[in-house]
Amino acid sequence: MEVTTIKVIKAHKIRLHPTAEQEEYLRRACGTRRFIFNWGLAEWQRQYQAGEQPAAFALKKQFNAIRGSEFPWTYEVTKCVVEGAFDDLGNAFRNFFAKRAKYPQFKKKGRSQESFYLANDKFTVGDHWVQVPLLGEFLVRQREAKGEPITKRTRMKRNLGKVNLAEKLRFSGKIMGATIRQEAGWWFLSVQVEVVSAQTPVDGPPVGIDAGFMRLATLSDDTRFENQKPLRHLLAQVRCLNKQLARRQKGSKNREKTKRKLARLHYRIRCLRDDLLHKVSYYVTERYGFIGLESLNVRGMFQNRKRALSASDASLGKLAYYIETKAQAHGTKVQRVGRFFPSTKRCHRCHHVREIDERERIYICFNSACGWVGDRDLNAALNILEEALRLASLTVQ
Ligand SMILES: [Zn+2]
User: Fold this and answer.
1) Average pLDDT over every residue of 69-85
2) pTM of the predicted model, to two decimals?
3) 382: CA distance to ligand 1 center in Å?
């Protein structure tokens, strides 16, 4: 039998345990990346207003030409930071032009995601450590500046640049790159690995999936995935802490403490959500041989002003992404259904279309010859399945 192998890029996020002096380097790398991104954005805007056509690659060349004379301090950290900052800038504009994202914003200290990129040939991952480029040299210089004696042995000690990892890298394969980021006061290394594996087809029935705010996912065979209860409990805690934060004086120590607590709580919520999304996507991709999904209205997502809703919007996008990547490993077809398809308004049995309010949880068909009554999301999932099968049959021929 012929076995098809496929390449999938998987990411493993591992907690880092840097020492206090190592953390100083990580912070500086993040700050440098933020500075370079902002420099690039300002320069982009200037060139655009001058009638030129700015591009991330050209800006990087321009920056590197003046780096030594104007920003020599950027040499304290790895040059991957420069590469990554301009890649991010290019992607930010690409997403903006494709209407997937808002116009790129300047990064503010403490307000934006603190991170920097490492190119695949610039770092090594070991058993329980990662060798961060220039970190060892940085530490030697810091110690010298403090007047600490630097022996030849310290200088040689490669361990200086090794940061402790909480666990071993889970995947084996070609390492494509990594990102170091700070989240809720903790440090993480996210490694992208290209994994080659044999495709294992799933011999299962087709399924349609309706993903929503009230219930996370409903399948066309009436399997239901509710949003978790602990999540609701944590969200109540978020509201409570937000109130506390509003009472704290700006710039006070207590305010910082509350902020930190809030960040950790948000982190826990993200982890819980993510865990559930992985479970649902795993369940679906292990059982069904064909998957119908709704395309998300990404544009509308950004126009949504309610923050609580936009968080679940983001997790719906993630669910679709997880399903698609996991389906790849099985060679399962995932068919997207257009976002103007009236999946919630149409009766799956007789195709009668009616208006339906967000709050109505039961679908009642108004066509007197049909009169189907049932779960609103189940009806949508059945519609999605039918439409996905129709679209898939069109593309096959
Ligand atoms: Zn009907």
Assistant:
1) 94
2) 0.81
3) 12
